Amino acid sequence: MKLAEAKAQFIQSWGSLGAQWGINRTMAQIHALLMVMPDPLSADDIMAELNISRGNTNMNVRELINWGLVDRILIPGERKEYFSAEKDIWKVATEIARERKRRELDPIIKTLNQLQEVEGDVKDKHVKAFKESIQGINKFAHQTDKAINSFVKAEESWFYGTLMKLFK
Amino acid sequence: MKLAEAKAQFIQSWGSLGAQWGINRTMAQIHALLMVMPDPLSADDIMAELNISRGNTNMNVRELINWGLVDRILIPGERKEYFSAEKDIWKVATEIARERKRRELDPIIKTLNQLQEVEGDVKDKHVKAFKESIQGINKFAHQTDKAINSFVKAEESWFYGTLMKLFK
DNA sequence: CCTCTCTTTCACTTTCTTTTGAAAGTTCAA
DNA sequence: TTGAACTTTCAAAAGAAAGTGAAAGAGAGG
User: Which residue of chain B comes nearest to A126, CA vs CA?
Assistant: First the structure.
């Protein structure tokens, strides 16, 4: 397979993976493109490679920067901004985990805690079933929270040098 | 908080969580509803509770059954079909993990393996960067695959009685 | 303080997804 | 075999999400 073809296929696969995970296709494609490029690209480069508009490029690059997956690079003497993506996939994974936890898990844990306090007679099987469901989900959410925290912190922690390198 | 209100809020939260995970909102809501109900519901019950059409109900219930998250219940002497959801959240989580792995991770691993074989001089920094990215992602994907397999199998395994119960 | 280049914004358009509801299909008791 | 009860399908409509491009903004350099 030729390099150009392989790149195109990777970008398209990563894009549809992203889409299934509730991430905008273009955002995932830009990320894929930047991961695969040795040097930073400008907005114009991205527009040209992916055939998308300037506005779309700008929006999604900004979002990737918010997620911490892409950095703005300023090249001395150049007016243009360049962009480059983290290429260590473990760092990418921990960034994504951190971000999704913050956006999704944290709010649902808050909600679940509130829902625990539903009033009513526990003899009533509806009340009982509800409380039990919520309690189960709540425990699960807390466990997941802990697990993600460990994962996210693994990069920074004592384990990094030893445990993480086993996986790499 | 009253039970009805709490249920409504749970259904709505679970629905929007699902939406962020690339799962159709209605499907997640039906799942939430069934998790919280002590007894199985009929299609009409679901339609009434969630204010959705018959067709929509039918489609999403069928999809939930495909995912293995909901069972069809036949009550002897009744013509109607009833539906009920798995209420053990750990089982729900392993079902979802199994299903998403099959749909998403397995295909991307296949693609990544193909992309490894890009031709070209490794001295070329574009080729080099591409190969390195793909290799990193591929390793990561295989590790993730193993991790999910362990998680999915944990339910059935020797650990279940000991390890899993610690978390519950 | 003007101009040139690049970035950001936003109202509008396009595309994709979901939902609806009526019609067709199925099943089963009588 | 019929028809009442229930389920499934599907084309059309509505709704949501993403993308466009022109115009406004920003700031460096003259």
Answer: B38
Gap between the Cα atoms of B164 and B95, Å rounded: 16
Regions of chain A where pLDDT drops below 50: none
Helix B43-50 and helix B25-36: axis angle, to 10°?
Answer: 110
Closest chain B residue by Cα to residue A122:
B3
Distance from CA of B53 to the nearest CA of A (A): 25
Name the residue facing A104 among B2, B20, B90 (closest C-beta).
B20
**Are B84 and B65 contacting, i.e. CB atoms less than 8 angstroms apart?**
no
Pair of tokens at residue B143:
């590790």
Nearest to B34 by CA among B6, B7, B66: B7
Q: Does B106 touch chain A (CB under 8 A)?
A: no
Average per-residue pLDDT for chain A? 89
Give tens-digit pLDDT for A22-42: 889 999 999 999 999 999 999
B130: phi then psi, degrees, rounded to nearest 5? -60, -50
ipTM: 0.86
Asked if residue B162 has pLDDT above 80, the reply is no
A166 vs B: CB within 8 A: no
Proximity of residue B42 CB to strand D below 7 A: yes
